[in-house]
């Protein structure tokens, strides 16, 4: 039996009202729909009577107008969804009143209210949120791939673990296991040789939950997913089962880690959203960037430096975030590599997923802070053929393969380095607050969102 859906319809004056009324009647005739009201969103040129009462009489339903009949009343749509306790918004308007960008803006408003936005040939749904966690939790999601979600997850886990919150991480990835996999980063020693053994068994040993376990030394749970929708929904994932496992393991707090722009389909108490300053500004300000940003209690802007992003671009992003989500804390950061072993006085071949354009900054940081000599770099951890070519090019000059635990870090970088007799040392990426280099404000913001998640859970 279908549940009755309370429907708010968007209408315009480009359609003659007898035609619009027929469409509303048709929707109302479906037993699972109830059209509770309509919003007039523009197009008065063809109207004889453009008054609210006149149009309401013609359509035989409540019709609401914004302050300007020529512009879409976005705030009014938001308000009416709440006022009428709406379950779905149906768009019966058309060009020229709406275009693609205006419809995306409407979609962001509707989805942020947790309900679908539908039209003749589209249906946008808010992301699934399974209510399975029985512990305080937060979700880390992003506006795209390669913007540092795992690095921030690992940093947050270390910080809150140090403050005795006893966290675990549940991560999903495109190379994750068929059955959710527990990695006891708190108990086992994760060496290059150990990861090679896992890789030889067919395990994707550079998956995000392995990286989290290595960098944070806590228990992690690895899951898989396939597909990523425009809003952030996945096609399949075993993350619900992973979250159920998190209820039973020895931890007091759960971090649910997203993958790419895909959002963990698990309800959490608070949410951290990463925005890559290197992304095209249109992807942040439009499409479903605003939807993700509105979910945030804490926004971490990453890669806030030249040549990936100018100071002006970072400021534009910050202002936009504060405009659409004024309650969220916003921290702008850069990433810096941190070897997990001693590289002082050694010749290093550095493998990373960072773009080639930033390599000089990373090399300078490694040499200045850790006393090594970087004899070669490769940005091709995600491209196995090019990675192997770079390794062959520099391997005779190096003593150490310093690599992030990403993509082909185990089955190519670690394997080839060990075969050549090189020492393999893995490398963390540390987010650093650009306005406060000692991360005092950043750490405070993370602890605050964790504390608020605990309060929310207890309430």
TrEMBL record:
Biological process annotations from GO: gluconeogenesis
Alphabetic keyword roster: ATP-binding, Cytoplasm, Ligase, Nucleotide-binding
EC number: 6.5.1.9
Cell compartments where the protein resides: Cytoplasm
Catalytic activity: (2R)-2,3-bisphosphoglycerate + ATP + H(+) = cyclic (2R)-2,3-bisphosphoglycerate + ADP + phosphate
Function: Catalyzes the formation of cyclic 2,3-diphosphoglycerate (cDPG) by formation of an intramolecular phosphoanhydride bond at the expense of ATP.
Enzyme's top EC category: ligase
Domain of life: Archaea
Keyword Ribonucleoprotein part of the UniProt annotation: no
Gene Ontology MF, one: ATP binding
Similarity field: Belongs to the cyclic 2,3-diphosphoglycerate synthetase family.
Entries under HAMAP family matching the protein: Cyc_PG_syn
GO cellular component: cytoplasm
Name under which the protein is recorded: Cyclic 2,3-diphosphoglycerate synthetase
